[in-house]
């Protein structure tokens, strides 16, 4: 027993330095790991968490961005946005309606165009790569410069009106231009947003289509199913998860994004293209340094709540597809 | 060895992140009053300010760096972020009569009372007190609640007024109109518009930056309504619990007058920003353009020859209370010294130079903008005959003079932006009639009164 004890002690004495070395190496490796993630953690703490906490606090205050102190107002900012302020609340309701219309129209418009486009692209072998690059162009070019280009195209004497008149469709031309006309302003912006979002959706669909086993399609064709039936009863059900993802991404992007509205119409004419994101931006930076950052922040949080709701719906729908 | 390298790489990554975080520190500090920075939100002012800065450097040895941040939302965000990081410049050019007071009340501006109270008589009389904290302003501007009455947060820099119509003389001549004779009445103005739009349907109309919706209200409607109703009834439109508001017979008449412009706006006018509308006029896409005294400088910078422009105030309607409308000048922008400036004395010296007849003269000549400093007899030489001629509309009997700077009769929480959309729906959009517009405007005014 004593011998055994002696030998185990000796063995321990032999093993101990190794273990110490190993644990030191493990600690060092962990330190290296922590050091590598430190920039990301610091960035998140400064740019993410700090900003979130700061803006949440600000949504309960009045502040202009430079005064030494915040004026706490409790839930007033939220109340004003939702119902209490007879000037602000109707504007927010109008903007929410426009946002809702744009969210639904952009998401479903994207699916309606991207799916047939991807199906056609999947059915050809020649020039597929070239055509895919061409269709993807709107995505890589979409941005501020392109929005300005669209504005010129949509002016009263812009290319769209000229083209319509040239092909004998002058009755469809808009004498005030497409962005200054209350009847067409929002619809025009929706079309441009769809134009910008179709490429990614098309690529997602294309990837989904190429993942479908060709044997399944071939079997259906041998059984006499035509192209439309194959699309409806085989391809479409297999693409539903991708469609759900595309629709929800479109809903979220349209709800939170406002650059196109800011650059192309600034909410006009007369509020016909006001959206929630733009209203938040205007409250923050277009009020002649009035203390409206709190209202803007509160509106941002209301938009966040809506986005959160969408994310929950998203998760449930995707889970339902499994 | 590999472990050591990995460890060193990790240390480098941490050091890099810390050094990036450290980049946000103060970048400039005072250097004995020999260098100043000034921010403006007007790009059209930069060159003229640089010319004045060059003259100032010759006299004082102090270098002034001019920086412009546009558009307005960018300038606002710049001030807000600089205030947080204590990176404000030494001197700011701000909108007068609101923005300067808010920024000053927020503690960002130095009180210029000691340096400039004895020098205010160099400015046009109506502009002198634009940057002063008064009891009335203290009561209505939240940020001034802690300010001392009598403090001076800005001195006037540029002056002028809105509601100036610019006409293209060549287009007037082509339409058979006398290019030297401005319309004397609203009706004559409408006739002139009819003539120019008949001569050129697409490019003979009226331009205005209606994308900034309040321009229609501030630059056309108010002057028209003031001239038609007279001062007392005009002020009653904005009254608390008024029965003589925009929906009253008098109010409706003024809205009907404004709506008469509907056939004459250029196509797509409601999608044009202020600059875009001015550029459209400078490019010959409209025969008439509405702006302010400051518009001429922008038109000139965009290739419009001032001698090809006929300028006149919004003409009064026949049968109204005022037949010879005058427009009181107001301070449009002011100069402020920041409270964080490390060179406050030099900054004050620069503001003093810039508002002196010499500095203001250099600025006026370089920018074609009207300084708030009274240039006296040398005005025409410095700013040209066209802009100097506009000054004739500045003086007249008080009851015939529309003063855009007079805010006392409006609700304390008055927001001109909210007056713009209803008027835009009346004209040019034609989505509402005068009665609906009047009711909407009355509701907006009531909400503004109730807000306090």
Overall tally of domains of chain A: 2
Count of extended strands of chain A: 2
- Measured as a percent range, the helix fraction of chain A is over 70%
Structural class of chain B: alpha/beta
CATH topology (level 3) name of the largest domain in chain B? D-Maltodextrin-Binding Protein, domain 2
Task: Assign an overall shape of chain A.
Answer: globular
Largest sheet of chain A: 2 strands, antiparallel
Helix content percent band of chain B: 40-55%
- Quaternary structure annotation: heterodimer
Rounded to an integer in angstroms, the radius of gyration calculated over CA atoms of chain A is 29 Å
* Number of H/I helices of chain B: 17
Q: What topology emerges from the helices and strands here?
A:
The complex is a heterodimer of chains A (322) and B (452).
Chain A: H1 2-58, E1 61-62, E2 71-72, H2 76-84, H3 88-123, H4 128-141, H5 144-153, H6 159-166, H7 185-211, H8 214-222, H9 227-256, H10 259-264, H11 276-285, H12 293-321
Antiparallel strand pairs in A: 1-2
Helix pairs in contact in A: 2-3, 2-12, 3-7, 3-9, 4-7, 7-9, 8-9, 9-12, 11-12
Chain B: H1 2-22, E1 35-40, H2 43-60, E2 63-68, H3 72-85, E3 91-95, H4 99-105, H5 113-116, H6 135-140, E4 155-160, E5 162-168, H7 169-174, H8 186-199, E6 206-207, H9 214-236, H10 249-259, H11 274-282, E7 288-292, H12 295-301, E8 309-313, E9 326-327, E10 330-337, H13 344-354, H14 357-367, H15 379-390, E11 401-402, H16 417-426, H17 434-450
Parallel strand pairs in B: 1-2, 1-3, 6-7, 9-11
Antiparallel strand pairs in B: 3-10, 4-10, 5-7, 5-8
Helix pairs in contact in B: 2-14, 9-10, 9-16, 10-17, 11-12, 14-15, 16-17
